[in-house]
Amino acid sequence: MTDTEELALAPVRARSRPARWWRGCTGSLAAGLVALAVLVLGAGLLCAFLDVPGPGAAPMIAHPVAAVLALLTQRLADRKNGPVAGVAGLVVLAIVATALWTFWWA
Questions:
Q1: What is the C-alpha separation between 75 and 66, in angstroms, rounded?
Q2: CA distance linking residue 106 with residue 96, whole number of Å
Q3: Chain Cα centroid distance, residue 18
Q4: Residue 99, class by beta-carbon neighbours within 10 Å (0-12 exposed, 13-18 middle, 19+ buried)?
């Protein structure tokens, strides 16, 4: 018979309410950007199928790229704690704001 030793796990720190809110907010923005990218791609494909003017190549490429970048950055924000998570959330916010400003508001 062998002796086994249980390893002690590091204590898990609960995230504060503002940190959970910030992660939820930036996660929602990243998910919304994914939905927007799907809609832009769908509109572009529909317009190409119907042979009518559509969104063009730039939005059809940039929206999915921005969505992937936002999702990867949000994944980092979800997996890290402290300032790294906060900065990653700010980067998600910047990506979403840049995509919206460039293709929808300007």
A1: 14
A2: 14
A3: 19
A4: buried
